[in-house]
Amino acid sequence: MFSRQLFHRKPKVVRAGLCLVVTTAATCAGLVPSASAAPAAPAPAPSNLSTKLSGRTIFIDPGHQGSGQDLNRPVSNGYGGTKPCQTTGMTALDGTPEHTINWKVANLVKQSLEVLGARVVLSRQDDTGWGGCVDERAAAANRSGADVAVSIHADGAPAQDHGFHLIVPKLPVSDAKASQVQATAGLAASKAVRDAYKRAGFTAASYAGAVDGMQTRSDIAGPALTQVPDVFIEMGNGANKADAAQLVSNEGQIKHAIAITTGLVTYLLGAPPSSSAAAAPIPQTNAAPAANDGTAPQNAAPAVDSTPNPVAPNAATPNAAVPNAATPAAPQQSTPGAYTPGAAQPQATPGTTPQAGTQTQPGTPNLADPNSAVSTLVTSAIQLLAPLATSLGLGDVANSELINLAYTLVSTLIGAAGNAAAAVTK
């Protein structure tokens, strides 16, 4: 109890310190002019960043969840058969369970989208309880009325396999509407996220039948049961040393979250193409899933939402286009120390939309030192936001709202680490 009281008594000091770190880091990175710089040009018109995704709903599924449930109950697989209700997911090399990695990245994506004005519905509300069978999560996505759904996972393949990939369903599936949506809008959204990952410097996987970071499978129920555009991302291989380092580190998780956000934003803001602009097909492979994969779209405990968003992009004709190769790619990042796994963040009641921009209380790192790990993390986040700035039409990241987004992402991670520390010392 003492540690919790202490933790909640200094939020203003910590937030002010983080803001100082953000300003210092941005200045050192050359993104904000220092006081001694030449007079700045007149400020551009406000970007209205907080309204970029107004009226849009995104359903986010942090795949898997804590144990303690019957995972073997048969449920629909979307192809007229059945499969187990749920799987446990992989465990990274450092012992971090996949459900925790997914949960932390999903919350970073949530924060980013809410800063842009989107309404976000989560499939599960914490990292400890039951998140639902795969069919329940797909049904929750359908009920949400989302413009796009994203299911966030990490793979468990042989150690030599490396890279991210997007899973798309082998078509047709039993549900005619799901087939139509996933063949068009779902494929476009998946390609947008794939391209954002490549621009961010991630390696596209080429194992288990994946082609240029895209893998077609008939054993993943989530996309086959989902009637809104669905993105199913395997961020990397938790058994591969390089991939695992990105999956469990703070900097790596921010990098993953920004890439996912950038892809979703690019898809959502794209103008509908002409009716003749059909999406290019993906090679239909029947490759067996990678060893230890354990991923069936662990999309969500029933996230009941009685007020679905009526404003959705044209599901039949979304824009699959992604900014061209001239979009500045974020540099490869170093891998700082891993976060403390297993910390659940406070969430809204299942099936409700959390308040936009709400934050967990951050911890207490050394904020006065601009060379601290926090400063480095903020600088990295700002640099990684460059492709998102392009997708938003901002030109660069020298924008106070994007710098504040970098602060938000870092404070979210620090808050989770602080909650974990408080829980240990109670």
Write the layout of secondary structure elements.
Blueprint: H1 2-7, H2 11-28, E1 57-62, E2 74-76, E3 82-84, H3 98-115, E4 119-122, H4 134-144, E5 148-155, E6 165-169, H5 176-199, E7 214-217, H6 221-225, E8 230-237, H7 241-248, H8 250-269, H9 373-384, H10 386-391, H11 400-425
Parallel strand pairs: 1-4, 1-5, 5-8, 6-7
Antiparallel strand pairs: 2-3, 6-8
GO biological process, one term: peptidoglycan catabolic process
Biased composition (Low complexity): 275-291, 307-365
Signal peptide: 1-37
| Poorly predicted runs | 1-45, 271-302, 304-368, 420-426
Strand content: 5-15%
Question: What is the residue-mean pLDDT, rounded to a whole number?
Answer: 73
> How would you sum up the global shape?
globular
Order of helices and strands: HHEEEHEHEEHEHEHHHHH
Q: Per CATH, which architecture of the domain at 51-269?
A: 3-Layer(aba) Sandwich
The CATH topology assignment of the domain at 51-269 is: Aminopeptidase
Beta strands, count: 8
Rg calculated over all Cα atoms: 20 Å
The CATH class of the domain at 51-269: Alpha Beta
- CATH level 4 superfamily of the domain at 51-269: Zn-dependent exopeptidases
Q: By helix and strand content, what is the structural category?
A: alpha/beta
Signal peptide: 1-37
GO molecular function: N-acetylmuramoyl-L-alanine amidase activity
Biased composition (Low complexity): 275-291, 307-365
Region (Disordered): 275-371
